[in-house]
């Protein structure tokens, strides 16, 4: 830099902090935008060759240039639905307990516990899944005679454990955001404790509670490592009947477990194959982003102070 | 509401809460109980022998290198973003969308970041597997959360400090330096620690472009300089879960990872909780 | 023929005996003895921080909701202890209603708000609701203003109307006693006047306890006056008696001081029906 410039900066005439901040922000924004663009661009060879719709076929066999990802989409949805079905009620219930029942000190301890749970790395959950959960699942699933403990259901249960802190923590925030005066006003009319919670607090916290579930779902859909380790990674497990339990008791594949697997290494260099995988990634990105944005947006409501 | 119904309701919520904490206990308890036997003075300071014996020295080193890089890269970016959002370009109507966007970025599936890194760093830049790629990718993952932590901290600063500074005729940058940055160390500190904790546990971003299972110690240079990493180590060993005798080592490695993440999170906790409660009852 | 012995012994609507509330670190109020008769207004006056609100909330067991508060002593509703073993706090609060300083309106329509306590407390049958709704709103002198707006959001009402809405809501569950915690301090003079007029009307059918920091309001509405102030760190009843007696001849230093500061800059003499007592009052204050 010339000495004139340095002097100008020193005198505060060139606002270096401002420009630096903007530059850094631009870099950050570019990185994220670049990611999205990257996926779109790399998916193009596949789109041009086979069309986006080819992803929604039932068979994935890259050697024969079949890129039907429906079984994986089913896998992702199935695993996440199981997770949400378990973690949703439990997370919401725990949140009500934390926000409405526990005295202040215990509540803080509870919040800490939940934050710690949320911080456990997914690979650790995966390990617990592999070495413990897999065997535990064999008995409940015995009716459907699974080949091993590596099933979609196992993945669902493991995911439930992983997203329950997210759901509980966000739901707790939503409940606590309802002003205390509302509870007092309800109790003052002679309405009991449970009544006040269910008829006054919960209805007003509903958007936030919904967003807790949404964000839990988003997390479940995007989880890779833990799911990878326990679902068996079997391709083309397209169920005969979509809404039955049987396919859950078999091994399967999710979008994330496919993307995180060795096929991704192999696919580079084969533009259509690579493009198909990245198209799949783009689909995942779009869905998770939409869910996350909606959930976050709902959770960021400014509650009017009553 | 009938009293038995009310009682059932509260019982259900209590059971849910107990379930959640039972999980915490079982998860951490299992790791501790099974991992502790593997930990002796040498475990942290010996390299791995073969596949699943010995210590985790270079995995720990690798993880520290990765998260250190991630922090060094992400923190300036987070500060820049936070300042731009709060001091230079605050637009109240966009606030909600902007924050939602940050939360969305925070929720990007990690495997996608890993694949992007594979493409850009391993292939386009020709780095093969590189520690720097891992650090940069992890930086991308933790950047949104750090930004949000910082933004929330800045927004919770009492307005009177800012009003006083502006009232003295300071321009925005001067206010930023004198008041905002000076008062937000707390948020910076806790945001950084949480970022580190998260980065330490991530596997998918480093899967393709940074980590190997064996054959690396301390990286030299950038190209073709992979590192070992604790989460990746556990990931690989967990797949090969029938390795006889290797289980003890595996649990030990998992315990070390857990302790690292827990320590980082716990140190950040007091300031995080304080900020949380402040914003709630403020 | 009324049995004179029974008449003499008939319990007050609401009575506090040796009532106190503490928060673990210190006592907030202590040794409160008060009697509220049916068809009368007891006014609690005193400086802020004296414990009037705490006392009020102790009278209908609303302090149960604050886990760090504990109480000693008794509160009797028609001679029966409300804190007794096995007494349900919720049913106490149905019989002793309360109005807060700031109107707290539930999201929902005007009708939803007024009927809230009835509906969710399971206190009335479906077909009774429209009639109870109208009755409660009329009692709060709000009917003419909202009769065409019953389905509109309650939040669209003005603050003064919202406060009367809260009054209607409290009245809908038909309490025997009504507690009012500075109900007009957030309102404009016109709404204040409307509420005070209601208080005088409601007095005919209920016992009312009114907390106010406005001595003129006490003058306008109260039958019995109690001065609450801190003695030895905790709020307690300094003086209690017929309103006009206390205001014309305050016996305690605390009340005199309170009157002095309340009337400072407001030289209008306190007026009572057929009585002007300025000279006596000023004489006492000057002492």
Task: Explain what you see.
The complex is a heterotrimer of chains A (306), B (282) and C (287). Chain A has helices spanning 3-10, 16-50, 70-101, 104-119, 122-138, 152-176, 180-188, 193-222, 225-230, 255-259, 262-267, 271-299, and strands at residues 60-61, 66-67. Chain A has 306 residues and is mainly alpha-helical. A two-stranded antiparallel ribbon of chain A has the order 1-2. Chain A is globular, with a radius of gyration of 24 Å. Chain B has a two-stranded antiparallel sheet. Chain B is mainly α. The mean pLDDT of chain B is 86. The longest helix of chain B has 36 residues, at 246-281. Chain B has helices at 3-35, 57-88, 92-106, 110-124, 131-155, 159-167, 172-183, 185-201, 204-209, 230-239, 246-281; strands at residues 48-49, 53-54. In chain B, helix 2 (57-88) packs across helix 5 (131-155), helix 5 (131-155) packs antiparallel against helix 8 (185-201) and helix 10 crosses helix 11 (246-281). By secondary structure, chain C is an alpha/beta fold. Chain C has helices at residues 4-9, 52-59, 89-95, 110-120, 129-139, 143-146, 159-172, 189-202, 215-221, 243-248, 253-263, 278-286, and strands at 14-22, 27-36, 40-45, 70-77, 80-81, 96-99, 177-181, 207-211, 224-231, 234-242, 271-272, 275-276. Chain C is globular. Chains in contact: A-B, A-C. Chains A and B meet through helix 2, helix 3, helix 4, helix 5 and helix 6 of A and helix 1, helix 2, helix 3, helix 4 and helix 5 of B.
Q: Keyphrases for this structure?
A:
heterotrimer; B: 282 residues; mainly alpha; two-stranded antiparallel sheet; 11 helices; globular; C: 287 residues; alpha/beta; six-stranded mixed β-sheet; four-stranded antiparallel β-sheet; 24% strand
What oligomerization state is this entry in?
heterotrimer
Structural class by sheet pairing and helices of chain B: mainly alpha
Shape, per Cα inertia axes of chain A: globular
Name the chain pair whose interface involves the most residues.
Answer: A-B, 92 and 93 residues
What string, H for helix and E for strand, traces the elements of chain A in order? Answer: HHEEHHHHHHHHHH
- Average per-residue pLDDT of chain B, rounded, comes to 86
Q: What is the beta-strand fraction of chain A?
A: under 5%
């Amino acid at each position: 830099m010339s000495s004139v410039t340095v002097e100008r900066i020193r005198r505060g005439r060139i606002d270096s902090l401002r420009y630096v901040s903007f530059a850094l922000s631009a870099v950050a924004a570019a990185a994220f935008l670049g990611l999205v663009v990257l996926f779109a661009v790399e998916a193009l060879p596949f789109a041009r060759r086979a069309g986006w719709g080819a992803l929604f076929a039932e068979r994935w066999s890259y050697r024969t240039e079949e890129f039907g990802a429906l079984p994986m989409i089913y896998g992702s949805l199935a695993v996440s639905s199981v997770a949400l079905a378990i973690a949703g009620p439990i997370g919401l219930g725990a949140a009500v307990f934390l926000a409405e029942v526990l005295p202040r000190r215990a509540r803080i301890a509870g919040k800490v516990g939940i934050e710690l749970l949320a911080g456990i790395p997914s690979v650790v959950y995966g390990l617990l899944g592999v070495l413990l959960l897999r065997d535990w699942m064999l008995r409940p699933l015995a009716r459907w005679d699974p080949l091993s403990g590596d099933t979609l259901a196992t993945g669902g249960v493991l995911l439930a454990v992983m997203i329950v802190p997210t759901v509980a923590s966000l739901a707790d925030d939503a409940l606590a955001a309802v002003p205390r005066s509302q509870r007092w006003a309800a109790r003052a009319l002679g309405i009991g404790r449970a009544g006040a919670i269910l008829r006054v607090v919960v209805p007003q916290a509903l958007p936030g509670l919904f967003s807790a579930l949404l964000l839990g779902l988003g997390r479940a859909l995007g989880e890779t490592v833990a799911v990878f380790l326990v679902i068996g990674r079997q391709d083309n497990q397209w169920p005969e009947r979509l809404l039955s339990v049987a396919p859950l008791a078999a091994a399967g594949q999710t979008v994330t477990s496919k993307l995180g697997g060795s096929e991704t290494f192999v696919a580079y260099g084969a533009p259509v194959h690579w493009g198909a995988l990245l198209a799949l990634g783009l689909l995942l990105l779009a869905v998770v982003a939409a869910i996350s944005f909606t959930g976050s947006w709902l959770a960021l409501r400014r509650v009017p102070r009553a | 509401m009938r009293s038995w119904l009310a009682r059932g309701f509260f019982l259900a919520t209590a059971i849910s809460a107990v379930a959640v904490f039972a999980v915490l206990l079982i998860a951490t308890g299992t790791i501790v109980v099974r991992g502790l036997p593997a930990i002796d003075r040498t475990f942290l300071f010996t390299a791995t022998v073969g596949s699943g014996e010995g210590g985790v020295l270079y995995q720990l080193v690798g993880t520290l290198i990765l998260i250190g890089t991630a922090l060094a890269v992400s923190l300036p970016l987070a500060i820049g973003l936070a300042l731009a959002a709060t001091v230079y370009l605050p637009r109240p109507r966009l606030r909600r969308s902007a924050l939602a966007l940050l939360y969305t970025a925070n929720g990007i599936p990690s495997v996608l970041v890993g694949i992007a890194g594979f493409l850009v760093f391993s292939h386009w830049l020709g780095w093969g597997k590189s520690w720097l790629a891992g650090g940069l990718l992890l930086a991308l993952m933790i950047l949104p959360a750090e930004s949000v932590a910082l933004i929330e901290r800045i927004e919770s600063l009492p307005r009177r400090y800012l009003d006083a500074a502006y009232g003295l005729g300071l321009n925005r940058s001067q206010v930023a330096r004198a008041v905002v940055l000076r008062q937000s160390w707390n948020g910076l500190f806790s945001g950084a620690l949480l970022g580190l904790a998260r980065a330490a546990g991530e596997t998918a971003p480093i899967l393709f472009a940074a980590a190997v299972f064996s054959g690396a110690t301390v990286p030299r240079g950038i190209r073709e300089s992979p590192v070992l990493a604790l989460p990746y180590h556990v990931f690989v060993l967990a797949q090969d879960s029938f390795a006889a005798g290797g289980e003890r080592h595996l649990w030990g490695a998992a315990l070390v990872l857990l302790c690292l993440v827990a320590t980082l999170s716990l140190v950040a906790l007091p300031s995080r909780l304080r900020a949380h409660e402040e914003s709630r009852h403020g | 023929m009324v049995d004179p012995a029974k008449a003499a012994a008939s319990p007050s609507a609401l009575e506090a005996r040796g009532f106190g509330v503490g928060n673990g670190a210190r006592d907030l109020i202590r040794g409160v003895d008060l009697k509220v008769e049916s068809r009368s207004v007891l006014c609690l006056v005193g400086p802020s921080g004296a414990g009037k609100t705490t006392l009020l909330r102790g009278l209908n067991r609303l302090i149960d909701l604050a886990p760090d508060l504990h109480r000693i002593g008794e509160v009797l509703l028609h001679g029966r202890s409300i804190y007794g073993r096995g007494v349900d706090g919720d049913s106490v609060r149905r019989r002793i209603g309360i109005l807060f300083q700031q109107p707290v309106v539930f999201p929902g329509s005007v009708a939803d708000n007024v009927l809230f306590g009835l509906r969710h407390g399971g206190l009335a049958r479906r077909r009774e609701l429209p009639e109870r709704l109208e009755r409660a709103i009329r009692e709060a002198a709000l009917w003419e203003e909202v009769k065409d707006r019953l389905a509109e959001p309650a939040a669209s009402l003005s603050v003064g109307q919202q406060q009367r809405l809260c009054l209607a809501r409290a009245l809908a569950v038909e309490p025997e006693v009504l507690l009012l915690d500075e109900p007009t301090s957030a309102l404009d003079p016109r709404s204040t006047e409307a509420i005070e007029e209601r208080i005088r009307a409601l007095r005919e059918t209920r016992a009312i306890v009114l907390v106010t920091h406005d001595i003129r309001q006490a003058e306008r509405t109260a039958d019995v006056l109690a001065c609450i102030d801190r003695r030895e760190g905790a709020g307690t009843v300094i003086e209690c008696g017929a309103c006009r007696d206390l205001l014309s001849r305050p016996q305690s230093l605390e009340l005199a001081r309170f009157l002095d500061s309340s009337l400072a800059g407001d030289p209008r003499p306190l007026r009572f029906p057929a009585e002007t007592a300025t000279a006596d009052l000023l004489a006492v204050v000057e002492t």
